[in-house]
C-alpha cells in the first residue's frame, strides 16, 4: 500500500468516526418542542393537604403563612450530568436554565432576595394511564413534565422556610405535539356532537312512545335500549378524550407547546426509616409563558 493510499484510508476512517460521533451526540438531544421555550413559574409554598412537612419540621407553616417566589426558566436540550429518580432516567434528562434574576419577597425584615442555581434538570415522562392533577381529578396529559431547581440561598417568611441548598421538584402536565393535539380536539368535539344528538333523539323517542300502541312501544323501547348502550360507549370515549386535553386556562408558547396552568412542588424528606426516597409536599406553582404580563 502506497503512503498516499494509506493516508487517504486513514482520513476516511477518521471521517466515519466523526459522523458516528455526531449521530450519537444528536441522539442525546431532546426532540420535544418544549426545547428552547421559556416559562415563568410562580411558586406558592406553604401548608398543603396531606403534607408531612410539619411532621419532619415541627411547627412548619402552622401559622398559615405562605411564601411566594417567581422564577423564569428555559428548557434546553443540553444533556444533564445528573439524574433524579423522581424526574426520570439520565438518558432522558436535560438541563433547565434559570433566566431570571434572583427572586424577591417581603418579610417583616423588609425585602428578601432568594437565589436559585442557574441550572437544573428536566424530563418528560409519557403516562400510560390516568393520573391525578393538583385538584385531585383524573387526567392523562400527553406528557408528565418533571424538573428541579436548587434554591441555593434558602428562604424564610414567618414559619415557612426553605433551607439553603434545597432541591425543589416540580411536576405538571405538558402537551408538546400540536399536530396530535389538534386531531384529539377535533375528535373530542365530534364526540360531543354525537352525544348531544343521541340525547335529543332519545328525548324524541320518549315523547313518541306516549301515543304508540303496544307493538310500536316495544320497538321504540328496543331502539332506546340500543341507544343507551351506544350512549354509554360514546360518553366513555368522550370523557377519555377530555382527560387527555389541556385545561382551557393552560398557557401556550409561540410554537404551540401547552403547559398545564398549575402543578405540585415537593422536596426530599428524611428517609432514615424508609427503604426508598421520601418526598414531602412543599406547595404548588402556576405557569405562564415568558411574554405573559
From TrEMBL:
It comes from the Eukaryota. Keywords: Coiled coil, Signal. Residues 181-212 form a coiled coil. Residues 1-21 form the signal peptide. The keyword Signal applies. The keyword Signal applies. This is Uncharacterized protein.
Amino acid at each position: 500500500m502506497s503512503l498516499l493510499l494509506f493516508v487517504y484510508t486513514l482520513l476516511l476512517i477518521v471521517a466515519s468516526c466523526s459522523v458516528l460521533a455526531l449521530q450519537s451526540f444528536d441522539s442525546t438531544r431532546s426532540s420535544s418542542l418544549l426545547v428552547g421555550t421559556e416559562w415563568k413559574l410562580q411558586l406558592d409554598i406553604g401548608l398543603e393537604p396531606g403534607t408531612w412537612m410539619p411532621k419532619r419540621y415541627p411547627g412548619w407553616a402552622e401559622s398559615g403563612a405562605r411564601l411566594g417566589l417567581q422564577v423564569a426558566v428555559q428548557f434546553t436540550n443540553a444533556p444533564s450530568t445528573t439524574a433524579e429518580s423522581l424526574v426520570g432516567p439520565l438518558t432522558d434528562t436535560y438541563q433547565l436554565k434559570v433566566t431570571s434574576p434572583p427572586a424577591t419577597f417581603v418579610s417583616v425584615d423588609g425585602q428578601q432576595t432568594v437565589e436559585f442555581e442557574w441550572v437544573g434538570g428536566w424530563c418528560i415522562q409519557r403516562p400510560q394511564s390516568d393520573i391525578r392533577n393538583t385538584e385531585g381529578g383524573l387526567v392523562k396529559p400527553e406528557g408528565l413534565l418533571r424538573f428541579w431547581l436548587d434554591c441555593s440561598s434558602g428562604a424564610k417568611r414567618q414559619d415557612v422556610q426553605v433551607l439553603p441548598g434545597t432541591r425543589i421538584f416540580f411536576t405538571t402536565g405538558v402537551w408538546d405535539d400540536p399536530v396530535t393535539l389538534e386531531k384529539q380536539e377535533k375528535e373530542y368535539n365530534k364526540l360531543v356532537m354525537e352525544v348531544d344528538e343521541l340525547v335529543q333523539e332519545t328525548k324524541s323517542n320518549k315523547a313518541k312512545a306516549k301515543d304508540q300502541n303496544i307493538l310500536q312501544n316495544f320497538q321504540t323501547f328496543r331502539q332506546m335500549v340500543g341507544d343507551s348502550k351506544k350512549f354509554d360507549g360514546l360518553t366513555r370515549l368522550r370523557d377519555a378524550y377530555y382527560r387527555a386535553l389541556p385545561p382551557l386556562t393552560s398557557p401556550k408558547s409561540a410554537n404551540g407547546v401547552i403547559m398545564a396552568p398549575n402543578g405540585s412542588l415537593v422536596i426530599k424528606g428524611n428517609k432514615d426509616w424508609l427503604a426508598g426516597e421520601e418526598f414531602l409536599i412543599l406547595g404548588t406553582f402556576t405557569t405562564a409563558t415568558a411574554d405573559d404580563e
